[in-house]
Design goal:
318 residues; alpha+beta; DNA Primase, Chain A; DNA primase DNAg catalytic core, N-terminal domain; Dna Topoisomerase Vi A Subunit, Chain: A, domain 2; five-stranded antiparallel sheet; 12 helices; 15 strands
């Protein structure tokens, strides 16, 4: 999909984005003369600030380690996102609509579809989360409470509840204008003789997010005895969700993973929650699959960038 965003749009988003505002999400800046702000460099360890930001020029430069660039390179370095993802995120942040061009018509279709699928996941995640705090979700609340997760903890992870019934989510997403073709492509629905129906029913839901924090799938745990399905049910492989390339919790763990050059691999969703709440903020889990080459690639990029090595700790049950 690279190169499909119109060049004018890339320039426009860069020009309209306040680089100081974006960088201040990561580094606290102080005024250092006309048009310049200073802070502690996020790219190297230092006690006195040598990281300079010039909002009018739209650039940053560190006199200590030499890192420099624009708002795109900064966000890519901080969030480990691709260029296209970065432009899309910054555009969304200022409410700018991107135009795609070039490539095969199929590529354009894919880029548009990806956006629609991300939107559907965002709406579904909000729908599930809202349901967890409703009177219908007592069983789910009991399950989470018994494991020591209070509402503050469940909100931190965006935990939700898929109500019992066949078409709660289906109706909700249709009312938001999603077509059946789009809904099928989300992996959130199964298809029977009478059409689509909710894949997740009467289950606790964990949103599975990319490193950039976008929801691309769900993990769902069975709650009721009459549920014939498996104990854990995940989103199947979709255009967005490739289980060999997702790590649950990576959006929350990424900063400390990079900082501490460490990752702790645990077994499941509740283990990740428990670890983070206990202060192990580098914990992640695979989603219904073994830790494989795709995961190693993701983790290596984050903890051993400079070749000095890092630490991978496996803590599986038993
Ligand atoms: Zn630096």
């Amino acid at each position: 999909m690279a190169g499909l965003i119109r060049k004018e749009d890339i320039d426009e988003v860069r020009a309209r984005t306040d680089i100081r505002e974006v960088i201040e999400g990561y580094v606290s800046l102080k005024s250092a003369g006309i048009g310049t702000f200073k802070g502690l460099c996020p790219f190297h360890d230092e006690r006195t600030p040598s990281f300079n930001v010039r909002p009018q020029v739209g650039s940053y430069h560190c006199f200590g380690c030499g890192e420099s660039g624009d708002v795109y390179s900064f966000v890519m370095a901080m969030e480990h996102t691709s260029f296209v993802e970065t432009v899309e995120r910054l555009a969304a942040r200022i409410g700018y609509t991107l135009h795609y061009e070039g490539g095969k018509p199929g590529d354009r279709y894919e880029a548009g579809m990806r956006r629609r699928l991300l939107d559907a996941h965002k709406i579904a995640a909000e729908f599930f989360e809202r349901n967890l705090y409703s009177a219908d979700a007592q069983e789910a609340q009991r399950f989470l409470g018994a494991r020591g997760f209070d509402p503050a903890a469940t909100r931190k992870f965006g935990v939700g509840y898929a109500p019992r019934g066949w078409d709660h989510l289906l109706k909700h997403l249709r009312s938001q204008g999603f077509t059946d073709e789009e809904l099928k492509a989300t992996g959130m629905f199964s298809e029977g003789n009478r059409g689509l129906y909710d894949r997740f029913r009467g289950r606790i839901i964990w949103p599975i997010r990319t490193i950039a924090g976008e929801t691309i799938g769900f993990g769902a745990r069975r709650l009721f005895d009459d549920d014939q399905g498996p104990k854990y049910l995940n989103t199947p492989e979709t255009q967005l969700y490739k289980k060999s390339q997702v790590l649950y919790g990576i959006d929350l763990a990424k900063r400390d993973m990079t900082k501490n050059k460490q990752v702790v691999i645990v077994e499941g969703y509740t283990d990740v929650m428990a670890a983070h709440l206990a202060g192990i903020t580098t914990a992640v889990a695979t989603c219904g699959t073994a830790f494989g080459p795709g995961h190693i690639k993701m983790v290596r990029r984050m903890i051993t960038d400079d070749g000095s090595g890092g630490e991978i700790i496996f803590t599986f049950d038993g």
